[in-house]
C-alpha cells in the first residue's frame, strides 16, 4: 500500500476510502453494535458500582438508543453487510419489534427483581445479550449467523431462568431448557452440515438452488431439512417438540417466561420465514406436508392439553404452543398477504403475551411465584386493575373482539384463504373454539368471590411505576390494534414485502 | 493418497450424532448428559469439516471453530448450573428433579 500507514482517523478522506473498509458499511447493523456495546457497558457499571435502579435505567437507555438508531439504518436499506447479514425493511421492522420486546421485559423485570434478595444487575446484562441474539437472528442470511444468533439468544436464557437464586424448580426448568436447547442446536447444526454438503454454500439463498442442482442427493437434502425442522420445531415449541415448554415456563421467573414466549420464539420464526420462504419448500410437497403436520398438531394439541391445567403459567405456555401453530398457516400459504399477516400477528402476540406475563410478574416476586389458579381467585376484589388487564389478555388470546386477538386470527385466515388451505383453516377455527374454553375459565376464576380465606394470603407487592406504565401501554396497543388496525396494517404491507 | 468419499464422513458424523442422542436420552447422570451433548455438537462439526473439504471451501472449518467456541461457552454455563444442582439436590441424578410435571 502506498504512503505511510496512519491510523484510520488520521488518514485523509481519499486514502481512507481506498484503504479501509468504510465504517458506513457497518451502519446497517448499528442497533446490534449498540446492544453489544451496551451489554459491556452495563457489565462494567455493575462491576464497579452495584445499584439496581442505576443498572435498570442504563439498560433502558441502551434499548432506547438502539430503537432510536433504526431511522438512521432505514436510510441505508436494503444492505448486505458481508454475506452473513441482510438488513432489509422486513428485517428492520422485526428488529424494532425484538428491541421493543426486550425493552418491555426489562421494564417489567425491575419491579419483579426488586422484591427479591440477591444481586439483580447481571440479569440486565444477560437480557441485553439475549436481545442481541434475537436481533442477530432477525437480520441473518447465512447459517453461521443463524447459529451464532441462536446460541447468543439461548445461553443467557439458561442463566436467566435460574435467576436470581437457583431454587429447585428454577434449576429443573433451567436444566430442561439447557439440555433440550443444546440438543436442538446440535440437530440444527447437523442439518446445516447436510445442506451445506449438498448445496455448497451456507447462505440462505443457496436453498434456491436446491431443486435445480443435478448432482444433489435428494435423500441428504431431505434429511438436512428434516433435522433443521427438528431444531426449529424445538425452539418454536411446535408439537411434538413442545414437552419442555410448560415446565420451563412454570419454573422460570415470569418476565423471563415472557421473554422466551415472545422474543425468543418470534425472532426464530422471522428467520424461519426468511429461510424457508424461498421456493424450495413449495417445490417439494413432502416438506410442505411436514410443516403442515407440525401446524395441525400444534394447533390441536396446544389447545387440548391446556384444558386440564390448573397453573396459569402452564396455560400460557400451551397457549403459546397453539399460537405458533396458528402462525404456521400463513407460512404455509405464502401469498401476498402472508408476510403482513405474520407481522401483524407477531406484534399483537407480543403485546398480549407480554401483558399476560407482566401481570403474573407484577403479582410475583423471585421468592414466591403466583402461578396456581387458586391464588388468582377473586383477584378482581383485591387488585382490580391487574385483574382487568389479565382478563383483557386472556380474552385477546382467545380471539374475541374488540381486542387485537380477533384481527390477528382474521388476517391469518385471509392469508390461508388466498392459498385455499381450507382444511387447515377449519382446524384453526375448531382449535380456537377449544381455546376459548380454558381462557375464559381463568378469567372467570378472577371474578369469583373467594368463599373462605384464600389458601395462601397473597403478599401485596406494590407495582413499580415502570411496570404500571408498561402494562397500560401494552393494553392500549392491544385495544387500538383491535379496533382500528388499518394504518398499522397499511404500514406493514408497505414495509414487510417479500424479499429474499 | 486416495480421498475418502464424503459419504463415509457424513455417515460417521451421523453415527456419532446418534450415539450422542442415545447418551442424552439414556444417561441419568447430568455430567454424562452434558458429555453426550458435546459429542452431538462435535459430530455436527465433523460433518461440517467433511462438507467443507468436498467443496474445497474454508467455510466448513470456520463453522467448526464457531461450533467449538459456542459449545465451550454453553458447556461452561452448563457446568456452573451443574454445581448449583449438586448444591441443591445433593445428587447429579436428573430424576431427582421432577417437581414440575403435567
List keywords for this structure.
heterodimer, A: 500 residues, mainly alpha, B: 102 residues, 75% helix
Q: Let me know the number of strands of chain A.
A: 2
- Shape descriptor of chain A: globular
- Poorly predicted runs of 5 or more residues of chain A: 11-20
* Helix-strand sequence of chain B: HHH
Number of helices of chain B: 3
Greatest interface (CB-CB under 8 A), with counts per chain:
A-B, 46 and 50 residues
The helix tally of chain A amounts to: 21
Question: Which strand order does the major sheet of chain A show?
Answer: 1-2
Strand coverage percent of chain B = under 5%
Q: Roughly what fraction of the amino acids of chain A lie in strands?
A: under 5%
Which stretches of chain B are poorly predicted, pLDDT < 50 over at least 5 residues? none
What series of H and E elements makes up the topology of chain A? Answer: HHHHEEHHHHHHHHHHHHHHHHH
- The residue-averaged pLDDT of chain A reads 85
End-to-end distance of chain B: 58 Å
Question: Which structural class should the secondary elements of chain A be placed in?
Answer: mainly alpha
Instruction: Please report the total strand number of chain B as a whole number.
Output: 0
Descriptive notes:
The complex is a heterodimer of chains A (500) and B (102). In chain A, 71% of the residues lie in helices and 1% in strands. Chain A is mainly α. Chain A has a two-stranded antiparallel ribbon with strand order 1-2. Chain A is globular. Chain B is an all-alpha fold and 102 residues long. Chain B is built from 3 helices and no strands. The radius of gyration of chain B is 17 Å and the shape is elongated. The model of chain B has no long low-confidence stretch (mean pLDDT 91). Chains A and B meet through helix 7, helix 8 and helix 10 of A and helix 1, helix 2 and helix 3 of B.
What is this structure's SSE topology?
The complex is a heterodimer of chains A (500) and B (102).
Chain A: H1 13-19, H2 30-48, H3 52-68, H4 70-74, E1 79-81, E2 85-87, H5 89-114, H6 121-139, H7 143-161, H8 168-199, H9 218-235, H10 244-251, H11 254-276, H12 279-283, H13 285-306, H14 312-333, H15 338-363, H16 379-382, H17 384-398, H18 404-418, H19 422-447, H20 465-483, H21 486-495
Antiparallel strand pairs in A: 1-2
Helix pairs in contact in A: 2-3, 2-6, 3-5, 3-6, 5-6, 5-11, 5-15, 5-20, 6-7, 6-11, 7-8, 7-11, 8-9, 8-10, 9-13, 10-14, 11-14, 11-15, 13-14, 13-19, 14-15, 14-18, 14-19, 15-17, 15-18, 15-20, 15-21, 17-19, 17-20, 18-20
Chain B: H1 6-26, H2 30-54, H3 59-89
Helix pairs in contact in B: 1-2, 2-3
Amino acid at each position: 500500500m502506498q504512503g505511510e500507514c496512519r491510523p484510520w482517523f488520521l488518514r485523509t478522506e481519499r486514502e481512507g476510502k481506498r484503504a479501509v473498509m468504510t465504517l458506513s458499511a457497518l451502519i446497517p447493523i448499528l442497533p446490534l453494535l449498540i446492544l453489544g456495546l451496551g451489554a459491556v457497558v452495563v457489565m462494567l457499571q455493575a462491576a464497579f458500582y452495584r445499584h439496581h435502579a442505576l443498572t435498570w435505567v442504563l439498560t433502558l437507555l441502551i434499548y432506547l438508543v438502539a430503537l432510536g438508531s433504526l431511522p438512521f439504518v432505514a436510510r441505508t436499506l436494503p444492505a448486505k453487510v458481508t454475506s452473513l447479514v441482510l438488513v432489509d425493511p422486513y428485517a428492520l421492522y422485526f428488529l424494532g419489534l425484538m428491541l421493543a420486546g426486550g425493552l418491555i421485559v426489562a421494564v417489567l423485570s425491575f419491579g419483579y427483581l426488586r422484591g427479591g434478595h440477591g444481586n439483580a444487575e447481571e440479569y440486565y446484562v444477560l437480557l441485553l445479550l439475549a436481545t442481541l441474539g434475537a436481533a442477530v437472528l432477525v437480520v441473518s442470511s447465512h447459517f453461521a449467523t443463524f447459529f451464532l444468533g441462536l446460541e447468543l439468544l439461548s445461553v443467557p436464557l439458561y442463566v436467566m431462568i435460574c435467576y436470581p437464586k437457583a431454587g429447585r424448580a428454577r434449576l429443573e426448568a433451567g436444566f430442561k431448557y439447557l439440555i433440550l436447547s443444546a440438543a436442538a442446536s446440535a440437530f440444527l447444526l447437523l442439518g446445516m452440515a447436510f445442506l451445506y454438503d449438498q448445496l455448497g454454500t451456507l447462505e440462505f439463498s443457496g436453498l434456491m438452488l436446491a431443486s435445480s442442482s443435478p448432482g444433489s442427493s435428494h435423500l441428504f437434502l431431505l434429511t438436512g431439512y428434516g433435522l433443521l425442522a427438528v431444531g426449529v420445531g424445538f425452539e418454536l415449541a411446535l408439537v411434538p417438540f413442545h414437552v419442555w415448554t410448560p415446565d420451563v415456563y412454570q419454573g422460570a421467573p415470569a418476565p423471563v417466561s415472557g421473554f422466551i414466549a415472545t422474543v425468543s420464539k418470534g425472532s426464530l420464526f422471522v428467520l424461519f420465514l426468511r429461510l424457508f420462504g424461498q421456493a424450495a419448500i413449495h417445490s417439494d410437497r413432502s416438506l410442505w406436508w411436514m410443516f403442515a403436520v407440525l401446524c395441525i398438531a400444534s394447533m390441536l394439541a396446544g389447545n387440548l392439553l391446556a384444558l386440564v391445567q390448573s397453573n396459569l403459567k402452564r396455560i400460557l405456555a400451551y397457549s403459546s404452543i397453539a399460537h405458533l401453530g396458528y402462525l404456521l398457516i400463513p407460512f404455509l400459504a405464502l401469498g401476498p398477504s402472508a408476510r403482513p399477516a405474520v407481522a401483524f400477528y407477531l406484534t399483537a402476540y407480543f403485546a398480549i403475551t407480554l401483558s399476560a406475563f407482566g401481570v403474573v410478574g407484577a403479582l410475583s416476586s423471585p421468592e414466591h411465584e403466583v402461578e396456581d389458579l387458586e391464588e388468582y381467585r377473586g383477584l378482581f376484589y383485591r387488585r382490580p386493575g391487574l385483574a382487568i388487564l389479565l382478563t383483557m389478555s386472556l380474552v385477546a388470546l382467545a380471539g374475541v373482539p374488540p381486542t387485537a386477538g380477533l384481527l390477528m386470527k382474521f388476517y391469518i385466515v385471509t392469508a390461508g384463504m388466498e392459498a385455499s388451505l381450507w382444511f387447515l383453516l377449519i382446524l384453526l377455527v375448531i382449535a380456537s373454539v377449544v381455546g376459548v374454553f380454558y381462557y375464559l375459565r381463568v378469567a372467570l376464576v378472577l371474578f369469583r368471590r373467594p368463599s373462605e380465606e384464600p389458601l395462601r394470603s397473597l403478599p401485596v407487592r406494590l407495582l413499580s411505576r415502570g411496570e404500571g406504565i408498561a402494562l397500560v401501554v401494552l393494553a392500549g396497543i392491544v385495544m387500538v390494534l383491535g379496533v382500528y388496525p388499518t394504518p398499522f396494517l397499511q404500514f406493514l404491507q408497505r414495509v414487510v414485502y417479500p424479499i429474499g | 493418497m486416495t480421498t475418502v468419499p464424503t459419504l463415509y464422513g457424513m455417515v460417521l458424523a451421523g453415527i456419532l450424532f446418534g450415539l450422542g442422542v442415545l447418551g442424552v436420552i439414556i444417561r441419568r447422570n447430568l455430567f454424562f448428559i452434558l458429555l453426550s451433548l458435546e459429542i452431538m455438537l462435535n459430530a455436527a462439526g465433523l460433518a461440517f469439516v467433511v462438507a467443507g473439504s468436498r467443496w474445497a471451501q474454508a467455510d466448513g472449518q470456520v463453522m467448526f471453530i464457531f461450533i467449538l467456541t459456542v459449545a465451550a461457552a454453553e458447556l461452561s454455563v452448563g457446568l456452573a448450573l451443574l454445581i448449583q444442582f449438586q448444591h441443591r439436590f445433593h445428587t447429579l441424578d436428573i430424576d431427582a428433579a421432577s417437581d414440575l410435571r403435567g
